[in-house]
């Protein structure tokens, strides 16, 4: 069973212009459809973003997913004491060491450990901000042959990736039929 990396977040005001194109409801819909399309065929790996971890917990609960077989959550110890409460419910969290006093360094360390996993077969990008762009570059560096799927319609950094890197044409950028997108582009 290969693993698919999920890079996602809900853009917020004050961190770039990503929120201007983002639709939080569509981000949630896309993450949910990804889990439905993936969770029984591949593991989903993600970094513990406070907007995404509770969402993943609820989706896994709804689907009756076996967490150990279905998902892997990475979390930097830099944020210890500020984790979403859902972290306690996942029994397969991989904690990475902090770089003392350095949030960017701590995130970089976590991302490099997470994205250098040998079982990654691809990555899906949904919504997000500058972290999505950073994770795209790191993912590509460690996994140059793996598939990449930026889901454009929910907006945010994933829309920028899809448009700027030429993943989809104009009409495809607006496609909100996420189930069809994942069935078409994710490996079986």
Structure, explained:
The chain is built from eight helices and six strands, in the order E-H-E-H-H-E-E-H-E-H-E-H-H-H. With 188 residues, the protein is α/β, with parallel strands linked by helices. It has one domain: Rossmann fold. The protein has a six-stranded parallel β-sheet with strand order 4-3-2-1-5-6, sandwiched between helices. Strand 1 (3-9), helix 1 (24-38) and strand 2 (43-47) form a beta-alpha-beta unit. Helix 1 (24-38) packs across helix 2 (53-63) and helix 1 crosses helix 8 (178-185). 40% of the residues are buried.
Structure at a glance:
With 188 residues, this protein is α/β, with parallel strands linked by helices.
Topology as a string of helices (H) and strands (E): EHEHHEEHEHEHHH
Shape: globular
- The CATH architecture assignment turns out to be 3-Layer(aba) Sandwich
Give the beta-strand count: 6
Poorly predicted runs of 5 or more residues: none
CATH topology: Rossmann fold
Largest sheet report: 6 strands, parallel
What's the layout of helices and strands?
Layout: E1 3-9, H1 24-38, E2 43-47, H2 53-63, H3 67-70, E3 71-76, E4 93-96, H4 103-115, E5 120-127, H5 130-142, E6 147-151, H6 156-164, H7 170-173, H8 178-185
Parallel strand pairs: 1-2, 1-5, 2-3, 3-4, 5-6
Helix pairs in contact: 1-2, 1-8
């Amino acid at each position: 069973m290969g693993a698919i990396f999920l890079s996602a977040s809900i853009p917020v005001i004050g961190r770039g212009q990503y929120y201007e194109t983002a639709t939080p409801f569509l981000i949630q819909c896309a993450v949910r459809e990804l889990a439905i399309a993936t969770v029984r065929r591949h593991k989903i790996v993600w970094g513990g973003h406070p907007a995404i971890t509770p969402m993943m917990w609820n989706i896994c609960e709804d689907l009756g997913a076996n967490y150990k077989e279905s998902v892997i959550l990475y979390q930097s110890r830099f944020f210890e004491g500020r984790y979403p409460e859902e972290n306690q419910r996942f029994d397969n969290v991989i904690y990475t060491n902090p770089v003392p006093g350095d949030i960017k360094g701590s995130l970089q360390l976590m991302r490099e450990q997470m994205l250098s996993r040998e079982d990654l077969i691809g990555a899906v990008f949904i919504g997000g901000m500058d972290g999505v762009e950073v994770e795209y570059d790191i993912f590509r560096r460690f996994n140059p042959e793996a598939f990449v799927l930026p889901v454009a319609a929910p907006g945010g950094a994933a829309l920028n990736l899809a448009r700027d890197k030429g993943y989809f044409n104009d009409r495809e950028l607006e496609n909100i039929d996420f189930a069809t997108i994942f069935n078409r582009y994710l490996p079986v």
